Amino acid sequence: MKQFLKGVMEWKASVCYLYTGAMFLYLFFSTVFHNDEISLTMLWTLFLVSVLATLIQGVCFSNWIFKKLRYTWRSLLFIALFLPTLTLMAWQADWFPMDQAGAWAVFIGMFFLTFIVMTIGFDIYFRITGRKYDGMLGQYRKQKEEKSE
């Protein structure tokens, strides 16, 4: 039960981080396109997207369901689940007019660009962190050898 509550708290924090990021993007694009009105539909839709995105992320990138699944397959599963969800939310909330194929193409392109940039960022972070821990492990082994001699 304690582990479940810890997971719920982490999920709740992730929703808050994602929603804050989405709000900053909304603020940026509202400023760029000189939109001075805040749409309640957009605010609620971004909140729902944040909730669903963190749930999908939890399913895909944790060991809740998939114990031994390669990162590549987890990433593809995330895209397969989240892109249709995000697209459905964008369509239902009228983020773009349905007849503007160019806007939808940019939307899909931005999704994949963001996904690629974030994946590269996480890969760099994990490589740096792995090297740090490898170095610490090497120091520990060296100290252990010195003590045993």
Structure description:
The chain is mostly helical and 149 residues long. The protein has 2 domains: 1-95, no CATH class; 100-149. Helix content is 83%, strand content 0%. It has 4 helices and no strands. It has helices at residues 2-32, 40-61, 71-92, 101-148. The protein is elongated, with a radius of gyration of 21 Å. The termini are far apart. The model has no long low-confidence stretch (mean pLDDT 87).
The average pLDDT value, as a whole number, equals 87
Low-pLDDT stretches are none
Give the total of domains: 2
Helix vs. strand class: mainly alpha
The percent of residues in helical segments reads: over 70%
Q: Termini distance?
A: 46 Å
H-E string: HHHH
Rg (CA only): 21 Å
- Tell me the number of strands: 0
Q: How much of the polypeptide forms β-strand, as a percent range?
A: under 5%
- Outline: elongated
Largest sheet: none
Number of helices: 4
Would you spell out the secondary-structure blueprint of this structure?
Layout: H1 2-32, H2 40-61, H3 71-92, H4 101-148
Helix pairs in contact: 1-2, 2-3
Spell out the key features of this protein.
149 residues; mainly alpha; 4 helices; 83% helix; elongated
Give a nutshell description of this structure.
With 149 residues, this protein is mostly helical. Helix content is 83%, strand content 0%.
